[in-house]
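User: Please predict the structure of the protein below. I'd like the answer in structure-token form so I can feed it into my own downstream comparison script.

Assistant: Understood. Taking the following sequence of 237 residues as input:
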Amino acid sequence: MLTASKELRKTIREITKDLARHEMSQWKLLLSGLDREMSILEIGCGRGGKTDFLRSQGFKNILGVEKNLYQVDECNKRGLNVVSLEDFDTGYAEKKFDFLVLSHIIEHFKFEDLIKFIDGYLKYLKPDGLVLIATPMVHPHFWLDLDHEKPYYPQGIKNFYSGSSEQVGFSSEYKLKLQDIRFRKSPFKVKNDRNLLLKNNDIPMLLFNLFCAGLFKFSCNVIGYKSGWVGLFKLKS
């Protein structure tokens, strides 16, 4: 009985997750008109999930950078081209890329550190190169991740890199122009629930979340809420 309940929980969670998928469909729209031969630098590629997605969309020339050495090794075992921060700094100092990908990484920085981080990689971008930023907005579950520092909105990034940064007291040598933007939506979902946290008598709540995910999917993402954004920026030469 216990094994059956465990398998049922797993099945419900997998179906719920599948019904809730939305962000990558927004990526597809942003990437649809881009040259599949362009050179891509993906920062913080982790386990290579987004790299796999980019490859599935026809992009071939992708270099990932990841600070976790275990993840670097695991990605390379799967045939992905991923290097550590140290190897990137020493081996790619003169390299220029067409496209910079920052997926779910900027929310882990405080503002001052974030600008240093982004500028530190913009120098590897060719003139008129592209930058994709994907990040969550404030939503009911944003602060459940302990390493989330701050939510960032497209208006803030757009305004800061426009060159008019009076509000923050300092500026960047780089200028970015927003080319396109898409918003990720998510189904309503309960997470802060005693039974869910304890995994005890949680099947009813799991089924409720499954029901909400089904509504989200079959309403064409109408019955849900905005939980993040994906923006495409161009480096102004």
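That's the full token string. The CA atoms of residues 176 and 235 lie 5 Å apart.
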